[in-house]
Design brief:
Blueprint: H1 2-10, H2 20-40, H3 46-61, E1 66-68, H4 75-79, E2 93-95, E3 101-103, E4 109-113, E5 116-120, E6 127-130, E7 140-145, E8 152-155, E9 161-164, E10 168-173, E11 181-192, E12 201-204, E13 208-212, E14 216-221, E15 228-234, E16 237-241, E17 247-250, E18 254-259, E19 262-267, H5 271-274, E20 280-287, H6 288-299, E21 302-305, E22 313-319, H7 324-334, E23 347-352, E24 355-360
Parallel strand pairs: 4-8, 11-12, 21-24
Antiparallel strand pairs: 1-22, 2-3, 2-7, 4-5, 5-6, 7-10, 8-9, 9-11, 10-11, 11-14, 12-13, 13-16, 14-15, 15-18, 16-17, 18-19, 20-22, 23-24
Helix pairs in contact: 2-3
């Protein structure tokens, strides 16, 4: 338990994720939860302890939400592989070059180095798998994280670190080329690119490619979204549409959106877009419907709200608990709608199988 406390203290979240007061309150809640866990003699991994402690802590410090009325091989071929449709996936898995499939435990890490894949997990010893790197044709490994599963962390052969979000596929070669590094994504990734001036790094989607040398950025390219986005945390990237008609340079703390024939850039609070890798959703002035769409994807549920509150702007933080009911109950308890008469309207939710409706209490 002491190790868990020290790990929490050493964790490096974005500077805007929590205030100092929030950190102290969260630590107090975790200390209290640890005592409860000891009494019950329940021994679980740190990830579960942290989530359990946050159930109480985030209610008091993290989910104060304010509403305001709405004022060669192409990337398309690789990403749109219908044979591995995400809609059919239930477990996170890694498909190695040569078609060997490995189930990945949630909370596990993947290290790819010198043609060998090492899978680390909480409950088992590390496992190592050889990858075919001798083929004359380019061979690809693919990490598949379906909806309803937590994000997976992967370290590539060049040292780049990748977080792959729910409902996503990430494809990378068994061996990077000598003059460039190329990966492919359908869904969402956050990536910290290892510096290598002689080999630029390309992230390719069905609609665009992002070119970088050494940088940190987020790419969102879900098949069912109307637009694709790049959010730059650090460094410099060049984004080009696949039809080569649009190209722009992106600066840190900015977001590029590609929608049809339009490519736009605006200032962004970057942590709002990468908080998912830390098991959180942080948002500022986002429509309630957009937030519920992200939660739906994370838990592989269909979550909707009444029409008259879809466009209400929300700001706050949500921890992505293991059980979606914890998230929904937290929202229902703490959300208030700002009305002209300053009265608050309590919220509730209804569940019918995998369909959930968030609505005002009658």
């Amino acid at each position: 338990m002491e190790a868990a406390r020290q790990l929490l203290l050493s964790m490096s979240f974005d500077k805007e994720a929590y205030s100092e007061q929030e950190k102290l309150e969260l630590l107090d809640q975790i200390n209290s939860e640890i005592k409860t866990v000891r009494k019950r003699k329940i021994y679980v991994g740190f990830g579960k302890i942290f989530a359990a402690a946050c159930v109480v802590a985030l209610v008091s410090i993290g989910i104060i939400i304010h509403f305001k009325p709405a004022a060669s091989t192409t990337s398309s071929d690789l990403v749109a592989d219908e044979a591995n449709s995400l809609a059919l996936e239930k477990e996170t898995r890694l498909v190695l070059a040569g078609e060997k499939t490995i189930a990945i435990e949630e909370g596990g890490d993947i290290l790819y180095e010198n043609g060998e894949m090492t899978i680390s997990s909480i409950s088992q010893q590390d496992k190592r798998y050889a990858v075919d790197t001798e083929s004359e044709e380019v061979q690809y490994n693919e990490l598949i994280v379906p909806k309803g599963r937590r994000a997976s962390h992967l370290i590539l052969d060049d040292g780049s670190r990748v977080w792959v979000n729910s409902g996503s596929k990430f494809r990378f070669p068994a061996t990077f080329a000598q003059d460039k590094r190329e990966v492919y994504v359908e869904g969402e990734i956050y990536i910290e690119v290892a510096k290598d001036p002689k080999r630029p790094f390309f992230v390719k989607t069905s609609e665009m490619q992002v070119r970088a040398l050494g940088t940190r950025f987020n790419v969102t390219a879900y098949r069912d979204d109307l637009s694709q986005m790049v959010v730059l945390v650090e460094g410099l990237v060049e984004v080009q549409s696949n039809d080569e008609t649009k190209k722009k340079i992106l600066q840190p703390d900015h977001m590029l959106t590609l929608a049809g024939n339009s490519m736009d850039i605006k200032v962004a609070n970057t942590y709002d877009f990468i908080s998912w890798k830390d098991g959180l959703l942080q948002f500022r002035s986002q429509p309630l419907s957009m937030i519920l769409a992200k939660i739906s994807r994370h838990y592989d549920l269909y979550i909707d709200c009444e029409q008259d509150i879809k466009d209400l702007k929300c700001s706050g933080k949500l921890v992505l608990f293991d059980d979606p009911k914890d998230v929904l109950e937290t929202i229902a308890r703490t959300i208030s709608l700002e009305k002209p008469d300053s009265k608050t309207v309590p919220m509730a939710y209804e569940m019918n199988g995998n369909t959930i409706l968030l609505k005002k209490k009658s």
